């Protein structure tokens, strides 16, 4: 069965600094990978997704993620964060052939300080 | 505008009093799902539905019921709520490639 591990529950960072939110997954088959963001008191919205093709995926708000099959990772990065990026970020995986089942990590809270 | 709506957004109730949280989507998605979000646990799937009249258990189905009589609606029913069902609930619908669209959430408190 697939699983998702987000190694950091909280990541504090200063504004304009780079950030990386880590995500590792476990699956016996090929997967689709997603990052969702949850702003305070809101639902989740899709940041970016990897389905196939280039392993470097660009999303909204300047975020990008790189799929690394050998390390089973899908880390999220942004070169320069803003206060408005303060939110909870969730990594999620679904298995190709069973795409209705989406497994989420436990989330990483990104706190951006001025 | 493509969206998933949930009602109510906030609900405080007492143990044992039946309640229903409604969910509706306007994207003609076949797949819909309910999750609960708890601190430190992320999102856990309660039930999902792959089409009208087709529902299945997720990871934490105990104490919940669902129905899918119409494609656009997927209500979540708590027949006898208990305090351990106090949580933030999200409904979602999905395209075939697994991208899920989430509602705004329902914060439920069971006293």
Series of H and E elements of chain A: EEEEEEEEEEEE
Overall pLDDT level of chain A: 91
Question: What integer is the average pLDDT of chain B?
Answer: 93
Oligomer: heterodimer
Q: How many angstroms does the end-to-end distance of chain A come to? A: 41 Å
The helix/strand class of chain A is: mainly beta
Radius of gyration of chain B: 13 Å
Main interface by residue count: A-B, 23 and 25 residues
Shape of chain A: globular
User: Which consecutive residue ranges of chain A, at least 5 long each, have pLDDT under 50?
Assistant: none
Beta-strand portion of chain B reads: over 45%
> What would you call the shape of chain B?
globular
Task: Please tell me how large the radius of gyration of chain A is.
Answer: 14 Å
* Low-pLDDT sequence parts of chain B: none
Strand tally of chain A: 12
Number of helices of chain B: 0
Instruction: Compute the number of strand runs of chain B.
Output: 11
Biggest sheet statistics of chain B: 7 strands, mixed
Secondary structure elements and their pairing?
The complex is a heterodimer of chains A (114) and B (111).
Chain A: E1 3-5, E2 10-14, E3 19-21, E4 24-26, E5 31-38, E6 44-50, E7 56-58, E8 64-68, E9 73-78, E10 87-95, E11 98-104, E12 108-113
Parallel strand pairs in A: 2-12
Antiparallel strand pairs in A: 1-4, 3-9, 5-6, 5-10, 7-8, 8-9, 10-11, 10-12
Chain B: E1 4-7, E2 10-13, E3 19-25, E4 31-38, E5 42-51, E6 54-57, E7 65-66, E8 76-78, E9 87-94, E10 100-102, E11 106-110
Parallel strand pairs in B: 2-11
Antiparallel strand pairs in B: 1-3, 3-8, 4-5, 4-9, 5-6, 7-8, 9-10, 9-11
């Amino acid at each position: 069965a697939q699983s998702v591990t987000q190694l950091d529950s909280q990541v504090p960072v200063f504004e304009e600094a780079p950030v990386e939110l880590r995500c590792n997954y476990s699956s016996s088959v090929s997967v689709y990978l997603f990052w969702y963001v949850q702003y305070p008191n809101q639902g989740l919205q899709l940041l970016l997704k990897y389905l196939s093709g280039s392993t470097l995926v660009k999303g909204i708000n300047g975020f990008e993620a790189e799929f690394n099959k050998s390390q089973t990772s899908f880390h999220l990065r942004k070169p320069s964060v803003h206060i408005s990026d303060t939110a909870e970020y969730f990594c999620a995986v679904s298995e190709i052939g069973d795409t209705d089942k989406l497994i989420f990590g436990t989330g990483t809270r990104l706190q951006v300080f001025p | 505008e493509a969206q998933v709506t949930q009602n109510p957004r906030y609900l405080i109730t007492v143990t044992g009093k039946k309640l229903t949280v409604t969910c509706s989507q306007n994207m003609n998605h076949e797949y819909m799902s309910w999750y609960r979000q708890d601190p430190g646990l992320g999102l856990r799937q309660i039930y999902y539905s792959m089409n009208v009249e087709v529902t299945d258990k997720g990871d934490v189905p105990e104490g919940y019921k669902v129905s899918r009589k119409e494609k656009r609606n997927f209500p979540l029913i708590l027949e006898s709520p208990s305090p351990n069902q106090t949580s933030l609930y999200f409904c979602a619908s999905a395209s075939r490639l697994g991208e899920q669209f989430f509602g705004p959430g329902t914060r439920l408190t069971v006293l």
